[in-house]
Amino acid sequence: MADSQTFRAETRAWLEANCPPEMRKPVTSEADVFWGGRNTTFSSAPQRVWFERMRDKGWTVPDWPKEYGGGGLDPEETKILRQEMSAISARLPLSSFGIWMLGPALLKYGTDAQKREHLPKIAAGLIRWCQGYSEPNAGSDLASLQTAC
Predict the structure, then answer these.
(1) pTM of the model as a whole
(2) Measuring CA to CA, which residue among 64, 34, 38 is closest to residue 49?
(3) CA distances from 104 to 11, 110, 129 (A)
(4) Where does 2-24+35-123 sit in CATH, by number?
């Protein structure tokens, strides 16, 4: 328990020192969310600073292994980090389908080469992923295409 308490105190102090005040306000528009990507732009200097500090610490994906750009935190440490971020209303430094969807699948099922190729780029906000799928007969697939004359 002492280790968890120490981690919590260190995390709280780091967040207080490193999270700009502007990044402790509620998200009110799309510009408040940083998605990353090849042609990324930041909506403000504080947004860039917050992202870079969290990225450099591995905390854009705190529970991913360090070799893939993550923080290497265990589940308890990750929970503490999220609680402490919530306590100061800190925004997520990076929002990404790569973090929520692709990354976990690669961590579980990907080859080492796939993990090394894609995960660090996702964690660093260098690439942006999306989910693409279609439902049968939804009009988004060519199988449902019909013509008449």
Answers:
(1) 0.84
(2) 34
(3) 24, 9, 13
(4) 1.10.540.10
Asked if the model's pLDDT at residue 141 lies above 60, the reply is no
Looking at residue 75, its amino acid is P
Domain residue ranges in the chain: 2-24+35-123
Matching residue, tokens 């905390």? 59
Q: What type of residue sits at position 77?
A: E
At residue 140, the 3 state secondary structure works out as coil
101 contacts 129 by C-beta, under 8 angstroms: yes
Is residue 36 a contact partner of residue 125, using CB atoms and an 8 Å limit? yes
How would you label 82-103 residue by residue, b for 16+ Cβ within 10 Å and e otherwise? Answer: eebbeeeebbbbbbbebbeebb
